[in-house]
Amino acid sequence: MKNLFGVVIIVLLGFFSIGIPLAVLPGHVRDHLILGNTWIGIVIGLQSLVTLLTRHYAGVIADSKGARAAVGRGIMLLIISGSLTLVSLQLHGNSALLFLLIGRMVLGAGESLLITGALAWGIGLVGPAKTGRVMAWSGMAMYAAIAASAPVANLIGEHFGFSFILASAILFPSVAGIVSILIPPTPAIGGGRMPFYEVLDRVWKPGVGLALSAVSFVGIAGFAALLFKERSWANASLVMTFFGAAYIAARLLFASTPDKFGGKNVALVSLAVAAAGQAMLFLAETPLWAFAGSVLTGFGYSLTFPAFGVEAVKSVEPQFKGVALGAYVAFFDLSLAVTAPVAGFIAGNFSYSAVYLFGLLSCAAAFVLALQIQKPKEAA
User: Fold this and answer.
1) pTM of the model as a whole
2) Is there a domain that residue 185 lies in?
3) What is the pLDDT of residues 305-343, one digit of tens each?
4) Nearest Cα to 36, choosing from 45, 26, 46?
């Protein structure tokens, strides 16, 4: 298991190169490049778009070249992205924007290779029977890095300046590259290519289930503070604190449950808990009920990623697990891209609490979909 821990450390370090720019670039685009909110959205969103578009390619590399090769390429792209972003600080006007946009596109491809390769690597190291644990630990590392990036960026900026903040987005993946050398590779077992449409046909039920469950996360991350402000409730920041604490607790306590009891069964329980949390937020008349709803949502949502992921990996033969993982995680990317504006429309035209009704209905739809997942006829 120590080798799996090493892969998790690589994910943690790699995702700092994603979270740190995310924390500081909106202000940089607005205050230094003197561009408006539309360009802020383009700069931030371009990475996610490229990540989505390169998921299948990342899976093919993991299967055909080996998971460590995919991770290595991803780390290299993260370093190149950080370098391009750093160079953009020395330029002005359109040149600065161009280097920044290219850096964001490179970062998107790097993220895709890193996480797809890391998941395939971890599964290859510990075996398919522990797929759920690999996905649970890797996902926790991703969220931990994103959550810690803002305070880390602020700390570096206070002592060393803005350039060093972006330089740290080069340093973290460089250390990840060193760690990757110390972990044994797993063999590349790809035997031919599975067409993308066939991959989607195999994994769409777990993928859509994941996408629907992510609505509960978007509602809390994007609109909880606004709900509290609208109702003049104090301590809005505690909603995400409670959500995060419950999310981590579930991962630590129950990471192995999808492997022991089946991804489908764990998904059903998790979605029921998350739905209860969304219902409490929708009906909340006091901050206490909202806090309780955030705890239940975080606890339930936490295991949907590894639970549905176990089912996605089981749906394909071993030599295609990389492309299955890539396609599966792409549903999460797509969910975030679509859900945020839909939730914003609901909040703007109805109420902030209605966002959590949207989350409740999405969890219910994912529950129905999970019920339909059957054991694959041909899977390893």
Assistant:
1) 0.81
2) no
3) 999 999 998 888 877 888 888 889 888 888 877 887 888
4) 26
